[in-house]
Design a protein that fits this description.
Blueprint (H helix, E strand, L loop, with lengths): L2 H4 L6 H21 L5 H17 L1 H7 L2 H4 L14 H13 L5 H5 L2 H14 L3 H49 L10 H26 L8 H21 L13 H9 L6 H20 L10 H7 L4 H12 L3 H19 L4 H7 L5 H12 L3 H9 L1
Helix pairs in contact: 2-3, 2-4, 2-11, 3-6, 3-11, 6-9, 9-10, 10-11, 12-15, 13-15, 14-15, 16-17, 16-18
């Protein structure tokens, strides 16, 4: 007689489906643990995926009948949703900044406390567990843990979206290669994280209004969580293969942002001066072919002009109304347009000759500036 038959355990389709997701998340986590690029960020993401995987364990073994066969498994510290938010924040900030704030690590302390709480009660006699659940845990402590974890996760998503927006603004102001970094992965990751949170919130509202969902009624939530986690895991393996430039805590981007907000207060004469200076700067970049450097940065240009980054950024922001990334890429696109008109080679060669590092980046930038892909532009010229 097998172990499952002896204890009347049934490995049904629910347990099997969630179990497959569980195994996939662990395999993805192992890959991320061993990835050398973005080491700190991938560690945060690996722990996040492991946490989600073990959040599925009570459902996997519950549907298989383990809790009926082994009631002492109650309080087993498989899941700890309170750590989801801090781990997500850690991942986003590790991808975008040079140093993760200690506040994020401190936010994990309550999660450790909750884990130790479950460990303590897991080791207690079964009757003491039931008494504790009936007296305090079920009606007071468990809801507090639940609402705390959900609130922290939702706040973490909001903070993460704001951080990504700041990062995009910073990168566009300081690098001409902003389009090379697939920043879409981070918001996509957040959306994948947000979908089960919305389902979780809906489930809590329903429980408050109509009573707690049964084990089987809550199953759709875990399906949503499973496939969202699966999508995040797949994206992490395929999209997060290279290092992002990092924001520094002493960065001048705050000064740059302040300068951008002051444009409306400039006198017309001063604005005209900035426009003339921007035109001169453009002439230097074109004449000396600085735009052919695929990774040309604001720092590189400031060093070449023997001035500081804030001054160059102010000229571009207030003289053109755009950022450094668009300023340089506008020149590259115009160069590419001339190359397409004069038929200087195929599109890949024209992209490389115009200062782009790859055809993918060339296509994205060209369409962003002209609203046409290079192929569409080429066909338009032939008509």
């Amino acid at each position: 007689m097998s172990f499952f038959e002896q204890h009347q355990l049934i490995l049904g389709w629910r347990s099997t489906l969630l179990g497959l997701i569980f195994v996939h998340l662990l395999i993805t986590s192992a890959v991320l643990f061993n990835r050398k690029t973005e080491r700190q960020a991938n560690l945060f993401l690996a722990f996040l995926l492991i946490l989600i995987a073990f959040d599925l364990v009570p459902q996997i073994i519950g549907f298989a009948g383990f809790y009926d066969a082994f009631p002492w498994l109650s309080f087993a510290p498989f899941s700890n949703a309170s750590a989801l938010g801090p781990l997500l924040l850690g991942y986003v900030f590790a991808m975008t900044t040079s140093r993760v704030s200690k506040v994020i690590y401190a936010a994990l302390i309550p999660s450790i406390t909750i884990f130790l709480y479950h460990c303590y009660w897991f080791l207690q006699p079964l009757q003491d567990k039931w008494d504790w659940v009936a007296s305090y845990h079920g009606s007071v402590i468990s809801p507090i843990f639940n609402y705390y974890a959900l609130t922290l996760a939702l706040v973490s998503v909001i903070i993460s979206f704001l951080q990504i927006r700041r990062y995009r603004h910073w990168l566009a102001n300081l690098s001409s290669a902003a389009m090379e970094f697939d920043q879409r992965w981070l918001p996509h990751c957040l959306i994948g994280f947000l979908i089960p949170l919305i389902a979780w919130l809906f489930m809590d509202v329903y429980a408050f209004l109509f009573g707690r969902l049964s084990y089987f009624e809550a199953f759709p939530f875990y399906i949503i969580l499973s496939f969202s986690a699966y999508a995040i895991a797949q994206g992490a393996i395929t999209k997060s293969k290279f290092s992002f430039p990092k924001m520094q805590h002493s960065d001048v981007s705050n000064e740059i942002n302040a300068d951008c907000r002051q444009v409306s207060a400039l006198e017309e004469a001063e604005l005209n001066t900035h426009q003339r200076d921007a035109a001169k700067l453009r002439d230097v970049i074109v004449t000396e072919k600085l735009y052919l450097q695929p990774r040309l940065s604001l720092q590189d240009l400031a060093r070449h002009m023997a001035t500081n980054e804030t001054y160059i950024s102010r000229i571009i922001n207030q003289g053109t109304g755009g950022n450094f990334n668009r300023f340089v890429n506008q020149i590259r696109v115009e160069c590419a347009q001339e190359g397409i008109k004069s038929k200087r080679g195929d599109l890949l060669q024209i992209a490389l000759d115009s200062g782009f590092n790859s055809k993918a980046t060339f296509n994205r930038v060209f369409k962003d500036i002209t609203q046409l892909t290079p192929s569409q532009y080429k066909r338009q010229l032939s008509h």
